[in-house]
Structures are given as C-alpha cells and as structure tokens.
Amino acid sequence: MDSQKGRISIMESWRNNPPEIDFCLANFIAGTVGVVAVPAGIGKTSLLMQLGAGVAAGIPVAGALLPPPPKTGKVVFFATEDPPSVLKRRAHFFAKSLLAQGHGPETIAAMDRNFEFVSLPSPPKLLSNDHIGSDGMHMLEVAAKDSRLLILDPIRRFHYCDEHDFDKMLLLFEMLSSIVSGSSCSLLFSHHVEQALHTRDLGELEGAQGSSAFINATRWVVNMNGMSLSEADHFGMSPELRRSYVRVAFTKSNYGAPIPARWLKRSTQFEGVFETCELEAKVAQ
Hints:
The protein is an alpha/beta fold. It contains nine helices and eleven strands.
C-alpha cells in the first residue's frame, strides 16, 4: 500500500484557497453514502422518493424539509418492496402534488428525464456469508455511472447476511462506498430498525440491528420516527390522527450547519406524499 497516495500537504493547503465541497443534498457530500434509518411501515419509500425528486428536478424536499440541492442530475431508485402498479400510483400522486404546489410542467418533465423509478423485487445480492456478489456490484456500478444519486430501498434486500454481524455490515458499507467513491454520485439506502430501539437518541439508535456499522461509517444519517402517544397528547392530537405524522431528524450531518428536525404530515389529497407542517403544543387547562 502506498502510504503517500492520500497524503495532504499542510503547506499547500495553507497557501491555496480551500476547495469547494460538492453537496448532493444539504450536508450530504457527493461521492459518499447516506442512511435513512426507520421502522417498517411509516413511509420511508415516500420520503426517499421526495429526496430523489429534489435532486432530479432541483426542488425543495417535502416543502421545507431541505432546500433545493445546488445541482440536479440523474437519480436511479431501486424499489425492491413495491410492484410496478404501486410505483405508478406513487409517481401519479407525487406529480399531481407538484403541480398543486405551483411547479410547472417543466418540473414534471425534469422528473421524467432524470428520475429512473425501478421496481426490482429480486435484486442481485451484493454479499452473503461466504462470497461477494459480482453481479450485484456490477449492476450498481453501471447505475451509478453518470448518475447524481443512487437509492436502494431497503438495503436488507441486497444481501443475505445476518444484520447483527457488525463485520459483515461494515464490509457491505465499504462495498457501497467503493461504488461511488471519487465520483459525483452519492448513494442513499434505507435501513429497517427495530421499533423498540428506534429513538431520537443516536446512541440508542446504534443498538438496532446492524445500525452501528452503518452509523459509525457514514456522515449523513436521517432518522424517521412515527408520532408517539405522549407526543400526540403534547400537541392535543387524538391517538388515531397521530398516525398521519412523522418526525424526520438528521441525527448525523457532519458537513455544515445542523439541519433542524421537522414534522411531516401525510397529504390527505395526494396519496403517499409528505408535506412539512408546524405543530403547536396544546394550551394547558
């Protein structure tokens, strides 16, 4: 190994202007890997679609969750849990919601041009307990080429390993990193975490299955959580209505100012679309 290959010259760095950082999304550096950690069934695919749409069309994410990214580009989204009919419904209602928000047909055209929404129920595996899957690596390398963002939903469908195996999950993360390292493409994947362990405290989140390997390695982690009963009571909301709300927190976002956590509400008009909302605590009696 050439120990000088990655050496940074302090003198050269001091004398020259610092390089600009290429961000795919806010604080998410191009050529790196990010994680959306979420319990099953609260809307991760919808959130991932809206993150991808921001990159594909240069629009804000879910209203005010994230600003428009500095650059647009091709997005490839491998959805492994939904059949084509469901993805078509998602695309239909999301396009309708964009028009309702005041985006013009040019935004829909940009989405159509830059967003590849792919139903992939049986993806080739990247890793098993005894070998690395070359077919899976090749597929993702091809997809990442000339792309700005590659989305895998969820990562569980891309390997055969025990997710409690720290070493295997770290190897998987390193494989994903190698696909985009040194390129202008970022890779974002969703990861199911156990409901009982899914909290807003990053230290506790690391106790979830396989998460510590991912959380330790990446510099961009999005934590998605449903509204608890105590939070519903805090906002004066019924237990049934709380299911329409999720809280999105950027629990690890190392490159830039902290990104505030936001509440999102499922649209009542556009199926599967999240909208940013402001909630106020109930007035004490």
